[in-house]
Amino acid sequence: MQFRRSDGRSAHPTSQGITLRGLGGNASSRALVTLDGIPQADPFGGWVAWSAYDAIDVGGIFVTRGGGSGADGPGALAGTISLHSEMTDGASGSIAYGSRDSWDASASVGTELGAGGQVTLDARYGRGDGFIPIAKAQRGTVDRAAPYEQGGLGLRLRFDAGDDHQIEASVRGFSDRRDRGTDFTASKIDGVDASVRFLHKGDAQWIALAYVQLRDFESGFASVATGRNSVAPALFQRVPATGLGGRIEVRPNFDGENPLRIGADWRRTVGRTEEDFFFSGVTPSRHRIAGGSSDTVGAFAEWTSGDSDYGLLWTLSGRVDRWSLGEGYRLERNIAGPVITDLRFASRQGWEGSGRAGVRWSFDDITLRAAGYRGWRLPTLNELYRPFRIGAEVTTANEMLRPERLWGGEAGIDWRLDNMKLSATVFANHLENAIANVTLAPNLNQRQNLDAIDSKGFEFSAEQDLGPATLRATYAYTDARVDASGAAAALDDRRPAQIAKHGASLALRSDTRGPFGGFATLRYIGGQNEDDLGLLRLDDALTLDAGLSWRFSDAISIEARGENLTGELVPAAISSAGIVERATPRTLWIGARARF
Across the strands, what pairs with 215? Predict the structure, then answer.
């Protein structure tokens, strides 16, 4: 679940953090997102640039709910979302035209490279005039459509380097331009990622990985007058950030199997925010720089034993991490005058442990499973050092934030009956030191560690094979509550912001055997609080997406699809003045796909 209900074409980039199982919301991700084992969160802010994956052919997504997956690295509080890239054999492409003069095009070409090698080149481009974010009844003369333009290019190489050895290398770049529907709100992200991986595929397997992430984010923020008839710049922000990392993993051979994974990894983040604010007209009078660095070095081990298809299977993993925060800083000065604030924040270090134990027992058509876990997350540089302002609301930073720590567990059952699959899971999580924006006074907030967030709930899914189609239904109930005292006592026993108690979906999708195909997805999200005190409320929403396709040759197909076909008003945010910002309205697409 993202922090906001908006998608990656219309949301502000810094609001695209992701979490699972109701573990509270801020823009930093509480679920760990990886691509081929590489962490994907922004090095400075912890949000995820979802448009970056247009520059690579994603071949699969594996979601582990619940924290403590030791081999994946720190940060997996709510779970891990693992993306895996795919090498292309041949050529494929797609192009689509949609509502509001939107275009979406992609292409991928791959071929063999010498003996045992492969090369793949992926590209994607999308643009659109966008929609007006503000609800119709509340718009003023300053409100307009919010355009977007996104593109990326990715290159991946894979080749043999002797017997049982293989080298994989990749580089991808992406660019994202959008704004928020008024003047002075344009934002952009430019990013480049590169990695090299060395694999040994003999009886005893091992992997060595090194990677770099470069990000340059810019954004403007506006102040809109009451009545929305005038707008002025409020802040301009630039955030350069770098992520570096490496990983070594060994899988020894035990009687022809590799049940043990042992290894070590390192991740370093460096970043800063450079901001101009206190505008007179369009000229800023004050400048701020704030940032720092963080390092995490960890060692992990994971053992899996048993039959992966039938009988008893159990997994035990653990890791220990040494974290350190370098000296942070915040400098604020008048552009035409003296320094106002020049602060240095002492470096800090500490140790954290995490782990997960899971068991699965399969017999006949029933599978029973259970897991317990502990995870942790280091505060981002953004949470530690950057204050910010939205309208009249000021939120101050807190350089003394402590790492978040999670204890949790779950139990579930899967049952296959003829052409039906049923799955049910109960879970409970206790998140200590949860970082939240705490209201201290009217229009004044501060990032603080809450005592805890307790989240428990139930997840259910059912899938029925109907022959030419599959019907799938899901439901999730999440009861999340804040445990708070001291300055945050007013939050005690309240629901965390941006967490819905109920969520459900009903989807019908055809198989791929015939020339005609289609899908329809009905999705419900319950009401949720916009703010920590629960004074602002986002209504529930029910949306319908659907599409039809016709494959008239082995290589070419055409399709038509729609998002939010009923035109439901999906509230994504609400300001203290009651101004409602909406997520994607009805959007129609028609396009073609080809594969050779």
Answer: 191, 241
